[in-house]
Prior knowledge:
By secondary structure, this protein is an alpha/beta fold. Helix content is about 35%, strand content about 25%. The termini are far apart.
Amino acid sequence: xxxxxxxxxxxxxxxxxxxxxxxxxxxxxxxxxxxxxxxxxxxxxxxxxxxxxxxxxxxxxxxxxxxxxxxxxxxxxxxxxxxxxxxxxxxxxxxxxxxxxxxxxxxxxxxxxxxxxxxxxxxxxxxxxxxxxxxxxxxxxxxxxxxxxxxxxxxxxxxxxxxxxxxxxxxxxxxxxxxxxxxxxxxxxxxxxxxxxxxxxxxxxxxxxxxxxxxxxxxxxxxxxxxxxxxxxxxxxxxxxx
Length: 242
C-alpha cells in the first residue's frame, strides 16, 4: 500500500516536495530545525492540507477518505500530543480501536506489552513520566494495527534502553509488512536503524536515499553546516565532528 506525496507545497513551510513510500521499510525524515519535517509528515498523515499537490495512499487522495477509514490505514503519533482526559493507560491505548468500533482487547494487551507498558496499565496517565507517556501513546497507535505508522520524533523523550526497544519494535512492524515513517533528529539513529533517509532543508528535499548516501559528509556540510565524518561498522556508526 503505497503512500505518496506529489508536489506538496505550503507557503513558508514546504515547496514542491514529492516522495513515494513503500511498505516494508523504515524511512526517516531528517533536517535542521524549521526544515519542514513536521509539515511533511502531517501532510502524509492527511492532517494538513497542502496549498498545491496531494497526498495519496494507493492512488486514493487522503482528502477523499473518511477520517475513520484514514485512521484504519494510518496511525499517527504527533510530536506534542495533547491528552484531553486523565484516563487509565489501558483505556487510553484502547482509543486506538475507535475506528473499528470494537474493544480490541487482544490488540490492546499486545500493544501494551510491545511498548513495555503492562506494569502500569491501570495507572492514570497523569501519573506517568514523559518517557512512559510517549510509550503509551505509541501503544495506542499500535493497537489500531495500521498499515502505516507515522511518528514525529518518537525517540525524543525516551531513555537509551527504551530507544533501542522502540527501534526493535518498529523494525518488527516493518518486517510484518507495515510502512514506518519517522521524523528523527538523532542522525546516528537514522544512520543505523532505518532503511531510507529523506533530508529536508528550507522546505525542499536536499537528499533522498540510503542512510550512507543521504547523510554523507557532503550533505552534512551543505545542510547542517558541520564538518563531520562517520566512523565504525555498518549498523554501529557514530558521527564525529571535526
